[in-house]
Amino acid sequence: MEEVTQNIRTNTKLRGCNPNYVVTRDGVVVIDTPQLPTKAVAMRAEVESHGPIRYIINTEHHVDHIFGNYYFKGAGTVVNHQGLYDRFMVVYPELDPFAYAYEALPTPKAQGTDLDDPEGVALWPDRVVYYSDPNKGKVVFTGDLTLRVGDHTFNCLHTPGHTPGQIAVHVPEERTVFTGDTIFSQCQTWLMTSNVDEWISSLDRIRALDVDHVVPGHGPVTTLAYVEVQRSILMEWKTAVAVAVGKGWSREETVARVNFKDRLPVDIGQGYMMDYIQTLNAGSLWDKLTAVPSRG
Is 212 a member of any domain? Predict the structure, then answer.
């Protein structure tokens, strides 16, 4: 794992989210866990070499940020925002997160590389066993939450937009904020079922922090300057689809004509999903912008 500060490590080279940990004088705090089983087991061993795990904080409910919790059982208290807790590994019609995580074991077109995890099959739990205790939140909060561990403060800030239960974790002593997927650094942004307006407001909240290091949910560690890049990406997507709606384009026409795949690559191990992301982004925005408001 790469060093962000003397006490912070992250891994920006895995398939899935960037998992992180912070070493304090009274134990270690993990922020997001690896999706791939062998990577989660290896990270736990590394973290515990620095001391006992006090907390595991998840920044969102998407499977790449939470699945590895299963391999951290018995190590620290899991902290989830209520919006995350309510959606933790929930199977929706459009996605079964358990099956989606399994499909990544080998990653299509990446077999035999460090971007997949064929050895993780041996560590894969039975579905019933997994759902009996996936290791979700024991501390569940709404709004914001502040934790103190040793000489460090962990400000869990509600930053909805990408997901309803999205949080950022601000560690002022390290002049660092972990944004989760509120920032996709130098890679394609997944809009999915996001609320772009809330997302932009959350970027404003992050921009107001006094930090030197921004650890994103995906992509390389960056600085606060990247907040403006992320904002522009969101606004460009929303504007392009709004223009399409204004021209009377159908959903199918909008998906076919609006995309930004020439701007940035897809995050590590997911290059084959470029067209899927463009389709999902354009289609979900078209649905939101054309929805008829319900009458009170």
Answer: yes
